[in-house]
Amino acid sequence: MKRLPVAAAVLAAITSYSAFATDSGVKATDILTDGWEVHGYGSMNYRINDGQSFDNEFGKPDYKTAGTMGKSSSQIEFVIKKHTEYGNGVTSDFIVRSEYGNGDSYYYTSSGNQKANNTAQFEIKEAYVVLGNLPYLPTDSEIWAGRRFLNRAAGGLSGEFWKQSSGQGAGFETKFNDGQRGGIAVVSADPEAGQVNDFICADGTEIGGEPCGDIIADNPPADGDRTTVSSLDLYYYGVQALGGSFDFDLKTMYRANQDPKVDSDPAENGVGFSITYNRDFYGFDGWSQTAIAYGKGLAANRGVNFGGWSTLIESDESLFFTTYGVANIGSKWQLGTEATWFQALDTLFGAEDLKRGIVAMRPSYKVNDNFRMEFTGSYGYETGKEGYWGRTGDAVETHTLNGEVAAVFTVNADYFGRPQIKPYISYIQTDDEASAKHVGIQDGDNETIFGIHAEIWF
């Protein structure tokens, strides 16, 4: 028998289904169901300090505090999904995630002057297509391509995403009978994306880094200067063991146009992996996630946290541990917790022997169906080798305490009940004024923040 070339064999397998029809006369390409879903998120934080708005998260992204510290005055997301099912069981999804205001602390009025600010405007964060149940692929498999946040996970109280692959790419995923799923994906991102190196003014002059009156074009990096980072992701989730389930992630990373000569040069490669354990709240009613991750080079930022920020140096190497969850305690109390430790095994973000950690708790008491009281306490720690990032003396080691009390008006007093409006008072105390400056406190060693936070997800 004459053998077909591989490409021809694949083409034959694909085209062999084109004439499919059921006994009822439904054709393979007939649309059986077609519809739209809309989901979203909103976070609106009103904070005044000394009579003004301010651009400070008081160290929360660096695991120093855990209160309601997000600096975004109005962060809004909409996720639109178009789902279609066809006659032969094939499904398609088109997902678009739009976002506005992430990281922008200004309070805007109806004048629309936010258009003059080139950060945190309306952006498309995700746009990808998923095709599922294609007849020539394994059962319960799907392929996807586009711009995506793949396999995200964030700390329960810090809110920091420690796992994700964010960028442009494609992948394959399949499910198994026992609830497990595995996949492979490649995701790429340009660290230079969104940067403007030079401005070309209306009069033809160029000024580096500073805008002029009328800008007619910008001059981004040339193609040959791009340092695109790419990650090959392998993952296998849902392995049942030890009273819960395990998720395994492995990522190998590469950065274009890099040739490190010494340890302090930008890294060309990286490798990272993580193991995540999912179960109830450590034997009690609730849920928890516990993860350990290792990263080297480009992957030193928590091992499996890939995106345009994956631009670390050759000597960077880290170990990351986190555990967080929510416990249900009787009919009135719920308790959220997080303990996270992040340290350099050599350097991390260029800092030798950098160590960071946080322990945080958030008890929540249901007064009635529409009102709860929320209390947050945290302790954050950071240190490194004398001279890291130019820090000496008292600035080498940072201790930060954060306590917060909030009254939560909500449609559902559950811990995750939303929408809600939450007036809060958050107090931060550091061990000295040098530490206070590291979390954005300018005068003294403590700060009190008053605010009202509104939040919704749907």
UniProtKB/TrEMBL annotation:
Q: Which domain of life is it from?
A: Bacteria
What's an example GO BP annotation here?
Answer: monoatomic ion transport
- Supply the Gene3D superfamilies for this chain: Porin, LamB type
* Main subcellular location: membrane
Q: Pfam families under this entry?
A: LamB (PF02264)
**One annotated Gene Ontology cellular component of this protein:** pore complex
Question: What membrane topology term does the record carry?
Answer: Multi-pass membrane protein
Signal sequence bounds: 1-21
**Where does it live in the cell?**
Cell outer membrane
InterPro entries tied to this protein: G_neg_Bact_CarbUptk_Porin, Porin_LamB, Porin_LamB_sf
Q: Which GO terms describe its molecular function?
A: carbohydrate transmembrane transporter activity; porin activity
Family designation: Belongs to the porin LamB (TC 1.B.3) family.
Instruction: From the Swiss-Prot or TrEMBL record, give the protein name.
Output: Maltoporin
Q: Which organism is it from?
A: Enterovibrio coralii
